[in-house]
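Final report, Chapter 2: Outcomes

The project's central promise was a pipeline that accepts a single protein chain and returns its three-dimensional structure in a standardized token representation, suitable for archiving and comparison. That pipeline is now operational. To close this chapter, we reproduce one record exactly as it appears in the project archive, with the input sequence first and the structure output second.
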Amino acid sequence: MNNIILFDGECNFCDHSVQFIIKRDKNAVYKFTSLQSEIGQEIKRKYQVPEHMDSIILVKDDKCYFKSAAALRISKHLSGGWKLLYVLSIIPKPIRDYFYDILAKNRYKWFGKKDHCMIPSPEIRKRFL
């Protein structure tokens, strides 16, 4: 299992983030699954992800990345200038995650929750586990 992004399937911001990644992942590097799905739960168990972790999670090269580390590693493979965001990795992780946590803590309040999932096209559906 590699290049898998786990996301909060109930979060509007997370859904928009997945759509953003899909549009800029020209080589279809990433596959997606929600944290709430059976596969998402299985991956969390396999990598011993803490139960309370509801951050974006990236599984790459048999390692698990959370929060800002996941977001920045994902940006490395996106088209356009987005890959330049990876340079922010030089900022110490506690500082990056502090700002990530502010967004994560307020994401439902600021962006809302979903009542239903998007229905992807057949081509995009292949990228969901």
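Archive annotation: Strands lie at 4-7, 31-34, 57-60, 63-66.
This record, like all others produced under the grant, will remain available to the consortium after the project formally closes.
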